[in-house]
Amino acid sequence: MSRGTSVHSHLEDETGASIVIALVFFLICAVIGSVVLTAASVQAKAVQTHREMQQAEFTVGSAAGFIGSQLKYPLTAVYDDSDNLLRLAPVSGETNDAPFFYVFWQAYGEKIAETYRNHAYFEVESLKVQQSEVGTVFGRIVVTGNLDFEIDLSLEEDMSASSPYNMHVYIQSIPTFDIKGELKAVEYESPVITKAEGAKR
């Protein structure tokens, strides 16, 4: 009788051990499954973030390329009879493929000439580039005292550094002067486009 009891107790002990092992195995599987799900979730989020960053880069980069290509055409200096610089204007026949350039200098040519005479800079803060298939980009154009272009572009209207993507366009001027040192014409180098400081990577 005691032997039977002993065997019965031994069987109960093995059953308990089997349950513990099964629970441990289940716990390990659950942990592994959780790790796999977490890794998959992180990977999916990373892919989504990467896709959004690529789209942001393409949107702002497209606007930067457009603005840079539009503002690289030559200008001529227009004077009055007293040799006072009146305005800077597009060279006739040079802007057939650059409507933005033509409109910009028609609108601001006199004001920019005035700030140039005063060794100051001219700023346009309300630039908006609307791209039908890409999106809207906001910008700020500064014409420096040397007639260089400094252009900031962003997906955010307030040009915040926390915007998904910001870019800077620099276009250097090449002025020509007459024998008296008066400005006669301005040409521009090819635009240099860079990711602005503060743009997310």
Secondary-structure map:
Blueprint: H1 2-70, E1 75-79, E2 85-90, H2 99-117, E3 122-131, E4 135-143, E5 149-154, E6 166-171, E7 173-177, E8 183-188, E9 192-195
Please name the defining characteristics of this protein:
five-stranded antiparallel sheet; four-stranded antiparallel sheet; alpha+beta; 201 residues; disordered N terminus; single chain
Strand content: 25-35%
Strand order within the widest beta sheet: 3-4-5-6-9
What characteristic shape results from the CA principal axes? elongated
Structural Rg: 34 Å
Helix coverage percent: 40-55%
* First and last CA, distance: 78 Å
- Arithmetic mean pLDDT: 77
Main pleated-sheet profile: 5 strands, antiparallel
Can you offer a commentary on this structure?
- The chain has 201 residues and is of the alpha+beta class.
- The protein has a domain at 63-195.
- Helix content is 44%, strand content 28%.
- The protein has a 5-stranded antiparallel sheet.
- Strand 1 and strand 2 (85-90) form a beta hairpin.
- It starts with a helix and ends in a 6-residue tail after the last strand.
